[in-house]
């Protein structure tokens, strides 16, 4: 007596169709994983590009700060040499004027 799906090779049909379902599910999951890996790859490439750009900017800023430090050091040296002279009153006026100008600039920046 044969029933639907039972008998010779009947269970083999179920196994083959079950295997096919698992293969399709695996391929679907594999495609999803491939898409995620590609997204991560492009993200890491973008991060690498950004890191290179930021390192270049930091290098440029370092050289700018070095040159500014040299200029500031030379200016401080001139101010010290000026203070050693007899014109200390002139130095005091110059410092007060500088503080006044910086205060006015700070005040204008604060209002904006």
TrEMBL record:
It is found in: Endomembrane system; Endoplasmic reticulum membrane; Golgi apparatus, cis-Golgi network membrane. The chain crosses the membrane at residues 90-109. Its main location: membrane. The keyword NAD does not apply. It is a single-pass type IV membrane protein; Single-pass membrane protein. InterPro entries: BET1_SNARE, T_SNARE_dom. GO terms for biological process: protein transport; vesicle-mediated transport. Residues 20-82 form the T-SNARE coiled-coil homology domain. Signal peptide: none annotated. The keyword Transmembrane helix applies. One of its GO terms (cellular component) is Golgi apparatus. Keywords: Coiled coil, Endoplasmic reticulum, ER-Golgi transport, Golgi apparatus, Membrane, Phosphoprotein, Protein transport, Transmembrane, Transmembrane helix, Transport. Interacts with SNARE complex members GOSR2, SEC22B and STX5. Interacts with LMAN1/ERGIC53. Interacts with STX17. Belongs to the BET1 family. Required for vesicular transport from the ER to the Golgi complex. Functions as a SNARE involved in the docking process of ER-derived vesicles with the cis-Golgi membrane. This is BET1 homolog.
């Amino acid at each position: 007596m044969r029933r639907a799906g039972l008998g010779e090779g009947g269970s083999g049909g179920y196994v083959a169709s079950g295997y096919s379902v698992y293969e399709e599910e695996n391929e679907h999951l594999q495609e999803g994983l491939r898409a995620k890996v590609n997204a991560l790859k492009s993200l890491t490439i973008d991060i690498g590009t950004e890191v290179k750009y930021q390192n270049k900017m930091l290098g440029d800023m370092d050289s700018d700060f070095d040159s500014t430090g040299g200029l500031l050091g030379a200016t401080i040296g001139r101010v010290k040499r000026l203070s050693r002279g007899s014109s200390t009153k002139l130095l005091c006026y110059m410092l007060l004027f500088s503080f006044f100008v910086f205060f006015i600039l700070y005040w204008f920046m604060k209002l904006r």
